[in-house]
């Protein structure tokens, strides 16, 4: 391998590491201004061959002078992987889907959408001779494949069998997105914690007794068991496609609210009753960022997987998610009854 190719490989490898961070949790919105894209006119440093699952493509890629990483032809690569593409002329974007995988690529924008999350890769898609090219890291980070560069050839491997293999994960539901076409359920944590289960028309929902359910039957605070793909995105939280979601235990209340954060204070009254003050972030717009919750014998205390834990783990400094209903005092912070406390235990 000559020095130029060694340098290209090093740059590509570095890019794979740098682009494996968190996605931005922002809603997908149309651009305020109409995008005008001109064909790329910079000199191409070198042309590169493309192989997908050991099959050489007719179309190749390129590496421009001074670019961070090589570019690959979007349509040729994704179609070789058996994915479906839909071109949107209005904003020069492409929708790409296969099973539970869905992403959106917009010409000139370093914002690759995965289930309403923006994921930057450091390089925007480029329109060259009416063909859209994306950075090579797209195949790794977004499509869950592996990418290597050697001898003037970019090799992309994606094992569909591994994508379809199932693993089972249980957890407490902390967020449900049920708007439009792109739906998801988050379990085992909120914000950047936990796992996001992307759901689609193929996802099966059922109760523990086998009764058929829908996404609308799930609520935050419920305990579910999910069968999902082994493949996950490298975003925070990681995302994966859900094949089946089973409602193991319904939430204590159908209209629960939640606050995720640290227990700032534990108080015990003269009659022995315990209250905790949680400060952090609300799980929804209607939830509180700080709340005082009274614990009772009916308060359910579990870990993030939904397994029962001892009340002794509810201590000052513990990271928890407190669930409650809408019956709160108008004090600051508001006070209510703890229906469920989810404790983040130290990983073993």
Automatic annotation (TrEMBL):
Q: Where is the Copper amine oxidase-like N-terminal domain?
A: 67-155
Q: What's one Pfam family here?
A: Cu_amine_oxidN1
Keywords of this protein's UniProt record, alphabetized?
Signal
Q: Tell me which positions the record assigns to the signal sequence.
A: 1-25
- This chain belongs to the protein called Copper amine oxidase N-terminal domain-containing protein
Question: Can you name the source organism?
Answer: Paenibacillus lutrae
């Amino acid at each position: 391998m000559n020095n130029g190719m060694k340098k290209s490989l090093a740059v590509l490898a570095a890019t794979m590491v740098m682009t494996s961070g968190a996605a931005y949790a922002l809603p997908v919105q149309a651009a305020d201004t109409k995008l005008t894209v001109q064909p790329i006119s910079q000199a191409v440093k070198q042309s590169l061959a493309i192989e997908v699952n050991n099959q050489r493509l007719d179309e190749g890629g390129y590496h421009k002078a001074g670019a961070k990483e090589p570019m690959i032809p979007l349509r040729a690569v994704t179609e070789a992987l058996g994915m479906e593409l839909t071109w949107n002329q209005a904003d020069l974007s492409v929708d790409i889907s296969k099973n539970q995988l869905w992403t959106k690529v917009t010409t000139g924008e370093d914002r690759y959408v995965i289930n309403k999350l923006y994921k930057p890769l450091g390089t925007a898609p480029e329109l060259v001779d009416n063909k859209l090219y994306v950075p090579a890291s797209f195949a790794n980070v977004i499509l869950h494949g592996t990418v290597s560069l050697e001898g003037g050839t970019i090799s992309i491997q994606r094992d569909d069998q591994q994508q379809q293999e199932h693993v089972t994960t249980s957890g407490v539901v902390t967020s449900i997105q049920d708007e439009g076409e792109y739906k998801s359920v988050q379990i085992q944590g909120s914000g950047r914690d936990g796992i996001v289960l992307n759901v689609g028309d193929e996802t099966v929902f059922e109760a523990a007794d086998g009764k058929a359910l829908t996404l609308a039957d799930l609520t935050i605070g419920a305990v579910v068991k999910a069968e999902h793909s082994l493949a996950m995105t490298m975003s925070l939280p990681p995302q994966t496609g859900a094949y089946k979601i089973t409602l193991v235990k319904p939430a204590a209340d159908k209209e629960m609210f939640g606050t995720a954060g640290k227990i700032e204070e534990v108080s015990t009254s003269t009659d022995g009753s315990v209250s905790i003050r949680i400060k952090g972030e609300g799980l929804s717009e209607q939830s509180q960022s700080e709340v005082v919750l009274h614990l009772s014998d009916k308060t359910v205390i579990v870990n993030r997987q939904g397994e029962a834990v001892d009340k002794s783990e509810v201590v000052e400094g513990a990271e928890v998610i407190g669930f409650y209903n809408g019956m709160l005092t108008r004090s600051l912070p508001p006070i209510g009854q703890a229906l469920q406390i989810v404790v983040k235990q130290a990983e073993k």
